[in-house]
Every structure is written in structure tokens, then in C-alpha cells.
Amino acid sequence: MSVREEFDEWAATGKDRGMEDRHWHTAKHVLARLPAEAGDAVLDLGTGSGYALRALRERGIGRGYGLDGAPEMARNASEYTDDDAVGYLVGDFDDLPFADDSFDHVFSMEAFYYAADPVHTLEEVRRVLKPGGTFYCAVNYFAESETTHAWQENISVEMTLWSRDEYRTAFREAGLYVAEQDAIPDREVEIPAASEFPVDGYETREAMIDRYRTWGTLLTVGVAP
Ligand SMILES: C[S@@+](CC[C@H](N)C(=O)[O-])C[C@H]1O[C@@H](n2cnc3c(N)ncnc32)[C@H](O)[C@@H]1O
Q1: Residues 9-46, buried b or exposed e (16+ Cβ, 10 A)?
Q2: Ligand 1 centre from 193 Cα, in Å?
Q3: Which domains does the chain have, with CATH numbers?
Q4: Ligand 1 atom at minimum distance from 19 CA
Q5: In whole angstroms, what is the distance from residue 67 CA to residue 70 CA?
Q6: Are 162 and 113 in contact (CB under 8 A)?
Q7: By the 8 A CB rule, do 176 and 122 touch?
Q8: Which of 4-8, 22-26, 169-173 is predicted with the least confidence, judged by mean pLDDT?
Q9: Overall pTM surpassing 0.85 (yes/no)
């Protein structure tokens, strides 16, 4: 199944809003750190419901573009806002449809590891960033968060499972400086008592704690030279 087929189905069944609710727990902390200023141009890679740009517009960014490989995702995102300063478009991480030096910041939540050639995508990010621009790359699926590894079994799109080190190495390989990296725990998801497990695909309470409280979301911040 292609990105388009897989995620069009997610959008058609309301999963775009479901992801927004869950991802917001940690995405809001990532967005709070992103040093966007009034008037800045921001690109959201794998925008889903487009919530990140709606939030950044409330902070006064000038213009936002949300790119997604699934047309239904981009269509839903467009319907969730009437703000003319944000635009949602269909495109692939392989070939960003923007000129060099277009953006002050690029953001991506829970999407980057679907890139067919992630180092090339990082090169594309570097290309579209202005000098000094930042890439805030947030993922929940990464090597240290072991309970996430099984996710690949439930999705037909190939996912890249990198470690924290591998993220930093790839950023540097693509010509981005690594300014910051850390794991942001999700403290909002409710974790039931041990007697209630298995719950939500977690065999034990310890596994769920490891996923949300120990690891949560890995943020790697790259800066374009
Ligand atoms: C797990 S969802 C996350 C959506 C949103 N960022 C969020 O936090 O809820 C991943 C999104 O990335 C998009 N995507 C996956 N691979 C892509 C690719 N190669 N090019 C463009 N978009 C892609 C999917 O269509 C989907 O909307």
C-alpha cells in the first residue's frame, strides 16, 4: 500500500483528529520550543489534520504550509481552517515543492520516519530552509523506545527505525547542525492499574510506562548553516 492509500483511509475514518488529540500531548511542548517569530514562514511535513500550523498562527507566524502525501489528509486540514495564511498541499518528502531558502522553520511530528529516503529528505529540508533556519523533527517511533517497534507490523508503509545517535548522524550527513536532542515524556496519557492489562496493545503496565513516561517523543533539532 502506498502512503496515499494508507493515510487517505486514516483521514476518511477520522484518525487524523485522533492523532491530533494524542500527539498534542508532546507536540505542544515541541511547538513551544520552536523559536518562530511574527511573520516567519513555517513548513509542516506530514501535517495530518494541520493542527501545528493552526497553533503557530495563533502565535503570529506569517505563513504556514502543511505538506502531506495523502490528499484526504490535506483536504481535511484545509477544511479545519478558514485562515488564508495557511495552505495545505499534497506532496512527498522526497521532493519538496518549494524554492531554496523558503522557510524560517520546518516542523514535523510523527511523520519523518515514513520518508522513503530519510537522508535525502533531510537534504531537502536543508535546501528549503533559510540560513539559520531550524528543523524541529519529532518522532515517537525510534530505537530506544522498544515498545514502539511493533508498530511496523500494523502498517504497510516502510518505516525507518533510527536511534538517537542515528538521527544526529543523519542530520549532520545532510548538512544540518544538531542544536538539541531530547526525549519529551507524555505525562498526560492515563496509565491504568497493573491489574487491567493488557490495555491498548500493551501487555504490561511497565511497557506502557516505558513508551509514554520514559521515552515519549524524540525531538532532534537541526539548524541550517
Ligand atoms: C502519523 S501521521 C502524523 C500526522 C500529524 N503530523 C500529527 O502529528 O498528527 C503521518 C502523516 O505523514 C504523512 N506522510 C507519510 N509519509 C509521507 C511522505 N513520504 N510524504 C508526505 N507525507 C507523508 C501521512 O499521510 C500522514 O498524514
Answers
A1: ebbeeeebeebbeebbbbbebbbeebebeeebbbbbbb
A2: 32
A3: 3-188+216-223 (3.40.50.150)
A4: 9
A5: 9
A6: yes
A7: yes
A8: 4-8
A9: yes
Contact 12, 85 (CB under 8 A): no
CB contact set of 168 (below 8 Å; sequence gap of 6+):
178, 181, 220
To test the pocket of ligand 1, the residue of 29, 47, 152 to mutate (highest count of ligand atoms within 8 Å of its CB) is 47
Give the Å distance between the CA of 140 and the centre of ligand 1: 13
Residues with a CB atom less than 6 Å from ligand 1? 3, 7, 19-20, 23, 27, 46-48, 68-70, 73, 92-93, 109-111, 114-115
- Exposure of 220 by Cβ count < 10 A (0-12 exposed, 13-18 middle, 19+ buried)? buried
Say how far residue 40 (Cα) sits from the centre of its chain: 19
Which pLDDT tens digit goes with each residue over 2-22?
999 999 999 999 999 999 999
What number of CA atoms fall less than 13 Å from residue 103's CA on the CB side? 27
